[in-house]
Amino acid sequence: MSASELQDLADRIVAQAKPGEQIEAYVSRGGETSIRVYEGEVEHFVSARSQSVGIRVIRDGRTGYAYAGTLDESVLHEVLADARDNVQFGTPDEFAGLAEPDGVPVVKQELWNDALAAYPTEQKIALAKELESLTLAADKRVRCDDSNYDDAYGETAFTTTTGIRAYGRENGCYVSVGTLADDGDETQTGFGFSVGRSPAEFDLPRAAREAADRATRLLGATKPQSKRTTVVLDPYVTAQFLRVLSGSFSGENVQKGRSFFADRMGEVVGNPIITLIDDPTNPLAYSATELDGEGLAARRNVLIENGVLKTFLHSSYSARRGNTKSTGNAVRSGGTPGVSCLAMQLTPGTATQDELIANVDDGVLVQMVQGLHSGVNPISGDFSTGASGLAIANGKVGAPVREFTIASTLQKMLLDVVAIGGDVEWLPMSATGVSLVIRDVTLSGT
Amino acid sequence: MSSPFLVQIGTDTIERVLAKGRSTGAEFAEIFVEDKRSTSAGFDDGKVEQVTSGRDRGAGIRVVHGETTGFAHTADLSEAGLLAAAEAAAVAARQGKGGVVKVALGAEVSQRVNNVVEFPDSVTKSRKVELLQRANDAARGVDGSIVQVSAGYGDSVRHILVANSDGILASDHQVRTLFRVSAVATGDAGMQTGYDSMGRTIGFELFDSEDVEALAIGAARQAVTKLRARPAPSGSMPVVIKRGSGGVLFHEACGHGLEADLVGKGASVYRGKVGELVASPLVTLIDDGTMSTEWGCIGIDDEGHRSQSNTLIKDGVLTDYMWDYLRARKEGRPQSGNGRRQSYMHLPMVRMTNTFVINGETDPDDIVRDTKSGVYIAKLGGGSVNTATGDFVFGMTEAYLIENGEITEPLREGNLIGNGPQVLRDIDLLGNDFAMGNPGTCGKDGQGVPVGDGQPTLRVTAMTIGGTAA
């Protein structure tokens, strides 16, 4: 099936719309390769192809949805029939509707790489083996849990009765390694990874070094004493912290009373050094995209400027409801598109991480967090996470520490950011990393 | 009753597919066929947002040669589609010379449908949707401070068929029904949330015995109570965990560490500890996939073996790990019915089912009375563990201070952190009031499977509470 056949399929579904009916068809297919190497041998090799179709039907303000994991013609009929049947059970909502073309031009991205599509299997296996041997060579205390090569490709066509017709395809690959470091009875763990549009972009030596470092640097770590202190977040941790904040910028969450930013538009919500944008048009972001989940052009939005709250993000639904325009932030997560940040980035400062640490008398460099999903409530803002890292004393990092938590509230942490590093790291997630210094958090340990 | 499995694949086709899988010299081939239908309905902001119907069906083919596993999956269930996937998997496992292989299947082991009374597809969607409105109304009626309620209904009917070149042929119907409610309350100190859920491996009769209004009221009260919560304490102190809310503690503190795949790679603190005292002698820990109607219940696992009840820790002594078929086969020992996968698109791994600690002898009220100061946890959130170090966290979503043997002030949310082996040893009181907890989804290596957990009220002498109060 060619690209145009995929689009035709979406067109054919939408062409079945009856008068008074809005239909959106979202058709995709893709594949992945997943190779895991252990002790120099291929442990598993997964080669997979998948297809999916999602159909949304809106009639008289009521929405119905159905999906299937196949493009089999016999099933397509059933999916449309199910979506139509489901319409009658929705509550009428005057703002329900599909997106309409808004004239915002698409910023072209290089999301497809022919070299990756043609990359030979043998070399994929070789990359995973090489990463394992580089990691083992980095430190004699290190074992590898697994070393992986993964790639995936996907293409999507969607068509709506409102005049949106879009096709996109994307591929990418990554390698990753999990490590264990032993010292006597003690074991610590680490990981390393490298991402690219093609294998040529991988930096295997760096991934190996980081995987070895992350595990070995925690050997001998102790549980620190409880205190209020300053934390320096590693870029990877900052990116995860930004992800936690993401939902509070959603216009839909604001409308539904689930954002602590709801009444704060135009007010100071953070330290003036904070400027936070969401920019999926930046080709450096791994989550860069041309289209949002409703087929509108992705675009750059300023969330916080010099500490002041500037923008809530919208899908076409929340935009209609809020009497504003979509910001191109619809995301699909099963059914009706929701609203989410796509590529968050803090405007960086200039300092290196060492320079940031040099200004901290007493604190912790947080290199890993555990439990952001369980100890953070993005609605109340309560923040508590398990952490590990290195103690900071008199501007220098010292002994490793683990099995402690750091806690504050999201609202307070934004105000307590005292410095932002210049060490930007582009990561395979919808937020970019940079070192961040936050004062006055509570560390719980012994 | 209805039979929703629409895929018909003949035994002779399966035998040819397995033979193709072994055609490059592999010693083991397996086909896993799945046909799953699901319905969900979401309610939020006073409205039924939408009803969603889902259909997932396909087959995964696994081929093992030496240390290498090849795996391919397809949504094309024709014989040609299955043979193509088998060839892809065989090439992936791709060692050695080719050859003609014959596979003969045994008699099919078919699991009794788990006493399902009302199959989801025999119940009108309007009855499902009506539950949501009732939950919304009940939650909003609790208090004027409730400003938002969302509720969700979900059901699934999953038919699986597993066959392998060792002759196994087995099938199972797995019917699950779930309901959840979350509420937001607003007060002077900002917003707070409450959440509760229920789920069982049965059909719509779930709602004959369980009341969605009561569930919704509970979730709303949790949010309202937390409006007057004070910041959770910071530091190490005794923790009492209410019955049926702390199974996740064992899931994280030791469950994952007892999975044979992690043990086999030396990535578990419990490696080499069989026969040793690894927990307080009060603790007997069981993983039981046969527990009728519980959320983690399965007729067969996703490798075609009947689920069973396995004692993991007996009176504090580690008795065994959990096993999937391949690792057990390699070790020349019986599997334990713990080979599970999220869907036909995933490789099976060692997974828990229903994991729980059985009753002790202490009156739960005495456990609180015996605690001079500490924290009482009435609801836990999710958790996670590093199995190699044993360090784990879990969230507390409803918790109270214990002062002079009494439960007093509500606390704001936070994480608790501990080290698995240490916490298991530090359990000093175990109640006689066992209860199972909320339905859970356990994530491992990117795959989610339904699991259950349970425990009586218990006390841990010291855990680190990750709050902000001094």
How do you describe this structure in short?
Chain A has 446 residues and is an alpha+beta fold.
Structural features, described:
By secondary structure, chain A is α+β, with helices and mostly antiparallel strands. Chain A starts with a helix and ends with a strand. Chain A has helices spanning 3-14, 73-87, 114-117, 121-138, 204-216, 235-245, 251-255, 316-321, 353-358, 372-375, 410-416; strands spanning 21-38, 41-59, 62-68, 142-160, 165-183, 186-196, 227-233, 276-278, 301-305, 308-309, 330-331, 338-339, 344-346, 362-370, 382-393, 396-409, 417-420, 436-444. Chain A has 2 domains: 3-216, PmbA/TldD fold (2-Layer Sandwich); 221-446, no CATH class. Chain A has 11 helices and 18 strands. In chain A, strand 1 (21-38) and strand 2 (41-59) form a beta hairpin. The model of chain A has no long low-confidence stretch (mean pLDDT 94). Chain A has a 6-stranded antiparallel beta sheet. Chain A has a 5-stranded mixed barrel with strand order 7-14-15-16-18. In chain A, strands 10-9-8-13 form a 4-stranded antiparallel beta sheet, covered by helices on one side. Chain B is of the alpha+beta class. Chain B folds into 2 domains: 11-226, PmbA/TldD fold (2-Layer Sandwich); 234-466, no CATH class. Chain B is built from 10 helices and 23 strands. Chain B has helices at residues 11-21, 79-93, 125-140, 206-209, 212-226, 247-255, 260-264, 325-331, 364-369, 420-425, and strands at residues 28-44, 47-65, 68-74, 109-110, 146-164, 169-187, 190-200, 234-241, 285-288, 309-314, 317-318, 339-340, 349-350, 354-357, 373-385, 391-403, 406-411, 414-419, 427-430, 435-436, 440-444, 447-455, 458-466. In chain B, strands 1, 2, 3, 4, 5, 6 and 7 form a 7-stranded mixed beta sheet that branches. In chain B, strands 9, 10, 11, 14, 20, 21 and 22 form a 7-stranded mixed beta sheet that branches. In chain B, helix 1 runs parallel beside helix 2 (79-93) and helix 3 runs parallel beside helix 5 (212-226). The mean pLDDT of chain B is 91. At the A-B interface, strand 2, strand 3, helix 2, strand 4 and strand 6 of A face strand 1, strand 2, strand 3, helix 2 and helix 3 of B. Strand 3 (62-68) of chain A pairs parallel with strand 2 (47-65) of chain B, so a sheet runs across the interface.
